[in-house]
Design goal:
Elements (H helix, E strand, L loop, with lengths): L1 E9 L30 H26 L5 E5 L1 H10 L1 H11 L4 E3 L9 H4 L1 H19 L5 E2 L8 H9 L4 E5 L2 H4 L7 E3 L7 E5 L1 H8 L14 H9 L7 E7 L13 H12 L5 E3 L2 H7 L2 E4 L16 H4 L2 H12 L1 H7 L2 H9 L4 H4 L9 H6 L6 H25 L5 H7 L23 H9 L1
Parallel strand pairs: 1-2, 1-8, 1-9, 2-3, 4-5, 5-7, 6-10
Antiparallel strand pairs: 6-7
């Protein structure tokens, strides 16, 4: 039997506007670009909702109604859900309608689509709890499966998430870990006892997500019949075909005129033609299939780029400096108890900000350029660094209000480049030596 597990990641960051050094200390609105650039968050959300979210949600609802066996799964970043609340309630309602069918599972992740696990386990837990609360509030469900930001995964994370109570966790089916083995089975980290690891079949997933419209690809055009044959071949050679991808694949990354919607509309029917095929959600897959071996990831793996590692976010000095400086502020930010300041600090944790600073080229260069709303990675770093400087000033100002050290002194202690006040040197004149009266009288007699 081959069970097909469709999982879609849905995320939009709060992009930082072109924040200048001259804005530091004056403008605390970092994400309110109103230009026609791709830094305008409202504009981007409306564009993607029109091209992807609304038409794809409509299509999937039709498929769920037409095929009782069809099932899918989503994970939504908290910042994406916040933007739906703010900019597109209609889109949020269309997702809620899908979940109400009972055949759509929602997974947990960090609220701010962050890499907090690498820098602060406490912050990681706080964000996951915030996300779980938001999902319960909007969709009335409590997730049982965890999906980490950008499918970043290692043994330590698997153990940590198991201790949080999750039944399964998603990961990239990376060849350098699997070796000769197939991603079409259920695995487990070597240091856990219960939680199961579901691996993305990246070849079949990327055939849809990245290669679908490429006329240079030997398999172009990809039809639903051809793809179904590839999945059928797993029968007897695996239990599970995990098709994990960004939801924006449909209509945004692969435009409507590529035929991506027609492909998806026909796919469930073609897959169900094989009597041994069916659909499962991630939690159902973990419950149904036994573990066949260990997936031993000592180092972090992800679903990004050809390396499948952290280099998309942490490969150069700009990225490392920015993220290290951000998490160094954790204690001071939380101590302020300033809700807006804390919210801004958390929005700055979103992994996209560091992705925009990536300077990798060659095989992955076009991908990074396509997803980058800034002209260069350096422009992204400058804007981010300027925002951090303003954040430090706000922390300093909050401390002053609470009776702490003077704001200017605190700012300098925090590393903000505040020019010193110009001071005028006090000019002192030598005092006239006092001559005794007797000497003055003697001089007069002469």
């Amino acid at each position: 039997m081959a069970s097909i597990c469709f999982y879609f990641q849905v995320h939009q960051p709060y992009r930082i506007k072109k924040y200048r050094i001259f804005d530091v200390g004056h403008d605390h609105e970092y994400f309110n670009d109103r230009s026609e650039r791709d830094l305008n968050n409202e504009k981007i959300l409306h564009k993607v909702a029109k091209k992807c979210y609304l038409p794809t949600n409509k299509l999937l609802l039709e498929l769920l109604e037409k095929h009782p066996e069809f099932k899918i799964a989503f994970s939504f970043s908290g910042v994406f859900l916040d933007q739906l609340d703010e900019f597109s309630p209609e889109t949020l309602k269309s997702f809620q309608k899908l979940v109400k069918t009972g055949r759509v599972e929602i997974l947990d992740e960090t609220y701010y689509h962050s890499l907090a696990f690498l820098y602060s386990k406490d912050e990681f837990v706080r964000q996951v709890e915030l996300h779980r609360k938001k999902v319960k509030e909007l969709f009335g469900v409590v997730p049982k499966v965890f999906r980490h930001t950008e499918l970043v995964y290692n043994n330590e994370l698997a153990k940590f998430v198991e201790d949080m109570g999750y039944k399964a966790i998603l990961a990239e089916g990376a060849d350098h870990i699997l070796g000769w083995r197939s991603p079409n089975f259920v695995y487990r980290a070597p240091n856990v006892t219960k939680i199961k690891t579901l691996l993305k079949n990246y070849r079949l997933s990327d055939d849809i997500a990245f290669r679908f419209s490429s006329r240079d690809w030997a398999e172009w055009p990809l039809t639903s019949e051809k793809f179904a044959r590839w999945v059928d071949a797993v029968n007897g050679n695996g239990n599970l075909v995990n098709l994990f991808m960004d939801y924006e694949t449909f209509g945004e990354h692969q435009w409507e005129d590529t035929g991506i919607f027609d492909f998806m509309r026909a796919l469930p029917r073609e897959l169900l033609k094989h009597p041994d095929n069916d659909f499962v959600t991630p939690s159902e897959a973990a419950k149904r299939y036994p573990v066949v071996g260990e997936f031993d990831a000592h180092n972090f793996v992800s679903w990004a780029d050809v390396e499948r590692d952290l280099s998309a976010w942490l490969s150069n000095s700009m990225q490392k400096e920015a993220i290290t400086n951000l998490y160094a502020l954790e204690g001071e930010v939380l101590a302020t108890k300033d809700a807006r300041l804390i919210e801004d600090w958390r929005k700055l944790q979103t992994s996209d900000h560091f992705y925009y600073m990536c300077t990798k080229w060659f095989a992955d260069g076009d991908v990074h350029k396509y997803f980058n709303p800034y002209d260069t990675p350096y422009e992204a770093f400058i804007a981010y660094n300027n925002v951090l400087q303003d954040l430090r000033l706000r922390i300093a100002g909050t401390k002053k209000k609470k009776g702490g050290l003077p704001a200017l002194s605190e700012a300098r202690r925090a590393g903000v480049n505040v020019p010193p006040k110009k001071t005028v040197k006090k000019v002192t004149f030598a005092k006239k030596k006092k001559v005794p009266k007797k000497q003055v009288a003697a001089k007069k007699k002469k």
